[in-house]
TrEMBL record:
Protein name: XRE family transcriptional regulator
Organism: Rhizobium hidalgonense
Pfam families (UniProt xref): HTH_26
Listed Gene3D superfamilies: lambda repressor-like DNA-binding domains (1.10.260.40)
Source organism superkingdom: Bacteria
């Protein structure tokens, strides 16, 4: 499978797009939405009536999303949930950023020997 360079230091295999979890797909979709609309987690949280901490956890794949919150996303943001979950090659940079952040968290969480 061909690899795609998404950053000076990051190269991803395109097959990663099919291996993303639901949480990862949603986090990438929300990142895309935030970039397009130039809004923050705080802005999105206010629109949904949830806390900024909750929105932050969702965007970092640390918390599951309630179906009622997904429904509210669709209505408030005027998007189709399928669009938030669809990840394409255009999103490889966002996938790399997500994986990078999650990798740092996992490394810092490991106890020192």
């Amino acid at each position: 499978m061909p690899r795609v360079k998404v950053d000076a230091d990051i190269e991803l295999d395109k097959s990663i797009l099919t291996s993303l979890s639901f949480q990862e797909r949603l986090a990438v979709g929300i990142a895309r939405l935030k970039a397009r609309r130039r809004v923050t987690n705080k802005d999105l949280a206010e629109q949904l009536g949830v806390s900024e901490a909750y929105m932050s956890q969702v965007t970092r794949c640390m918390r599951d999303v309630k179906l009622s919150t997904l429904d509210k996303m669709q209505r408030e943001w005027k998007v189709v949930i399928e669009d938030l979950l669809k990840v394409t090659e255009d999103d490889l940079t966002r996938v790399a950023a997500l994986r990078s952040r999650r990798g740092k968290k996992k490394r810092t969480a490991e106890p020192a020997a």
